[in-house]
Known about the structure:
Largest sheet: 6 strands, mixed
Number of domains: 1
Number of helices: 3
Strand content: 35-45%
Helix content: 10-25%
CATH topology: Rossmann fold
Radius of gyration: 16 Å
Bound molecules: guanosine-5'-monophosphate, magnesium ion
Amino acid sequence: MDTIQIKDKLFTVSIKEQDIQKEVIRVANEINRDLAGKNPLFLSVLNGSFMFTADLLKHITIPCEISFVKLASYQGITSTGVIKEVIGLNEDIAGRTVVIVEDIVDTGFTMQRLLETLGTRNPEAIHIASLLVKPDKLKVDLNIEYVAMEIPNDFIVGYGLDYDGFGRNYPDIYTVVD
Length: 178
Ligand code: 5GP
Ligand code: MG
């Protein structure tokens, strides 16, 4: 399927499953190398990162734990407009090496907010693993150590990412046609 329709929009395939998997394995190997002996706690940010998390973790060979959080958005009063609240974090992360597993970093505001929240809980270290980054849209200074792929500014779906709730199920990544 090279083209898919979701609601009012047409999307065309832009990153094939095999290419995604290759980069996911590369990232897993980098983490295996860098975090050996750290017993990292992977913190998967739902919903978008569920597929990336599953594939990544299959290739993590060092002892590790995995947990899941969700970010609830609500209207805030800061200049960024939207503030995200972390829900579902039951683990004690004090003294732990945490690896945030995200689907995509766009402006970076979401990640910045997550780092602030987690930082107050005294982890030993926080690392970021993101399937995708849009470098041209990044508005905050973030050290994203583990990136599977950098992409241009276009809106994408598939491999966990949605358009209005749909499209998360595709193994490939699709870019909107405008
Ligand atoms: P940020 O706070 O970095 O601007 O936004 C990050 C969030 O925006 C991601 O977690 C994701 O939910 C959403 N997002 C940003 N770009 C895209 C995109 O191209 N496609 C989809 N489906 N979601 C996106
Ligand atoms: Mg996300």
